[in-house]
Amino acid sequence: xxxxxxxxxxxxxxxxxxxxxxxxxxxxxxxxxxxxxxxxxxxxxxxxxxxxxxxxxxxxxxxxxxxxxxxxxxxxxxxxxxxxxxxxxxxxxxxxxxxxxxxxxxxxxxxxxxxxxxxxxxxxxxxxxxxxxxxxxxxxxxxxxxxxxxxxxxxxxxxxxxxxxxxxxxxxxxxxxxxxxxxxxxxxxxxxxxxxxxxxxxxxxxxxxxxxxxxxxxxxxxxxxxxxxxxxxxxxxxxxxxxxxxxxxxxxxxxxxxxxxxxxxxxxxxxxxxxxxxxxxxxxxxxxxxxxxxxxxxxxxxxxxxxxxxxxxxxxxxxxxxxxxxxxxxxxxxxxxxxxxxxxxxxxxxxxxxxxxxxxxxxxxxxxxx
Amino acid sequence: xxxxxxxxxxxxxxxxxxxxxxxxxxxxxxxxxxxxxxxxxxxxxxxxxxxxxxxxxxxxxxxxxxxxxxxxxxxxxxxxxxxxxxxxxxxxxxxxxxxxxxxxxxxxxxxxxxxxxxxxxxxxxxxxxxxxxxxxxxxxxxxxxxxxxxxxxxxxxxxxxxxxxxxxxxxxxxxxxxxxxxxxxxxxxxxxxxxxxxxxxxxxxxxxxxxxxxxxxxxxxxxxxxxxxxxxxxxxxxxxxxxxxxxxxxxxxxxxxxxxxxxxxxxxxxxxxxxxxxxxxxxxx
Lengths: 370, 285
Known about the structure:
The structure holds two protein chains of two kinds. Chain A is of the alpha+beta class. Chain A is 27% helix and 32% strand. Chain A has ten helices and 20 strands. Chain A has a six-stranded mixed beta sheet, sandwiched between helices. The longest helix of chain A is centred in the middle third of the chain and has 18 residues. The two termini of chain A are 33 Å apart. Chain B is mostly helical. Helix content of chain B is 76%, strand content 0%. The longest helix of chain B has 34 residues. Chain B is globular, with a radius of gyration of 24 Å. In chain B, 31% of the residues are buried.
């Protein structure tokens, strides 16, 4: 079931005394069967947006621009959360602690009005199937306190899916779990999504999680949507500096361009830019290290820290011309070829760099717009 | 298998210091303040034969006082369970001006001398008091009836319910109610099946404490009770009457009944609550 949001805004506090805007008016279209990640730093409005979709919070009512929420053809704008037919998974599970795992999962079914309620045999069968799906059938009679965090979150997922909701909403579902369990549950959720094909929206502040799990990512900051794109597009061509910086580590190079050469102290880089001050941004994997400078780049650096992490080696670089150290990730082969040690002097060679209009320019532009 | 304690030949050493000293002082204090008076009370009874003891505690007027006391205390406890729960709910879940004041007011029955409460209630509900005049046309007489007794009991014991339920409700995340609502539960179902069971142990404990407290209440009640023999005399008053007649043994006998009832009730509440809490904490509590 698709989700269409129109003119959704949220303001906290009463007019006149300390109003804070959690969400600027925004539109969002989510297609049927999509898995959407709402990504942003804390305070960006992503959880508020999710809770508005769920009906746990109401969007502002603006007389000039009426807001609306549609699930498919169904207008749910004024529908109570219990009638929206959503599944909601909370960050801290929010399980019913006094009920067994079985009763937790069965809750939605047993809370149905008597006429719509399936027979107890059917409820039993359905809960059993759900528990098999989340691989917890052997723990049906346990209480939530006896389960690990990952198991509790799986119970909470099974509970949310019991009523076969049109839309599944997850609020930082893996935020409270440790890294390994998180990875596992992520993969498992992706599988479940592909298998059952419901429309889901999840909130996260972890860019890796958003990029790995989502069909499309909605990047938010300060109550605004910065960009909506697939993970590849998002990473390759970020719409603005905020998105670029939020999606990964960033190295900065500031300098003055004259005659197609950017200089900064004893560092030089040939660039195709206008005369004047410029700031270039580089991802760690876009920096190559070598023993000699090239004709295009003369960027002397000193190695200050080395950390082999997984498939690559993370190296910290410092130099007089750098305001803050750079981070470069290089392949193990290069690492061994150059015999990199701490204190060694090498030359950085950018493979690629990015440039965005300064952040303050953008915010001035958006202020004059509103 | 040999455990570490067996290998070192001693009981495992505690890391937290001061166990012996702190437990010793606690026990001494408990003995002096609680056990000593109780022992002397029971000691008073040693002069009585079983038949004499039985005769004192089953005398008609005393039995009538049991009925009045237990009945009124039960009504007061149930009323408090309902309103105390509501009070705690309002204090925890909503924000409103004057909330702190209302919160502080909840402890007033504990702080106020019970005699002051008794006199205030008696003046308020007597036939020419404010409430008494208001209620007169309805034919409901509060002062000098068991309704008045229950009212005084409810007044002095309401903080027990509020103060036991409040922290449990504060610990209960709002997300749990929200989860119930997202699963399509009506407000009533969410309350009955999710919130109430969670609060149940605290509510029962609070109500039990309120009930036990009401059984022994004296000061607040005697002014409003009217103290008509066989009708509005409470058990505490019977003890007081015996004392005034210098019948210390008789007073102790009746007091021992109140004491035993209270002890058994408290113990039962504790045992029951322990079992419930064990389940919430996954068998570790």
